[in-house]
Each structure stands twice: as C-alpha cells, then as structure tokens.
Amino acid sequence: MDLEDDIQNARRYYNAVVRDLNTRIQSFPDLLVARPLGFREGKFFEIESPEEAEVPRAGWEGKA
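-> structure tokens emitted (64 positions)
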C-alpha cells in the first residue's frame, strides 16, 4: 500500500472518531455526564491551504 493511502486512511479514521465523539457528547444521556466532566467537542482534521494539500516529492526518486 502506498504511503499517501495510509495517511489518507488515518485522516479518515481520525475524523470518524471525532465525529462519533461529538455525537456522543451532544446526545442524551451522555451529555449529562460529558459536559460536567469537561469533555468538549473535538476538531476535525482539515487542510486549510492548497500548499499543504500538495504531495511532496522525495529527492531520491530515479537515483540508484
């Protein structure tokens, strides 16, 4: 499997876990426990600039 695929899968997994956490914190009866104990909604992983989204090139390609 390609490294980029592994990174993309990790981002998807992280965002799915954050979504599930946020849903639980907002749902009754979990919110009765979560909010008083200081649980807060998580932030999704997002790439904000186009430069961050570009795939970097490795310097050793084509060299033997």
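The CA atoms of residues 18 and 43 lie 7 Å apart.
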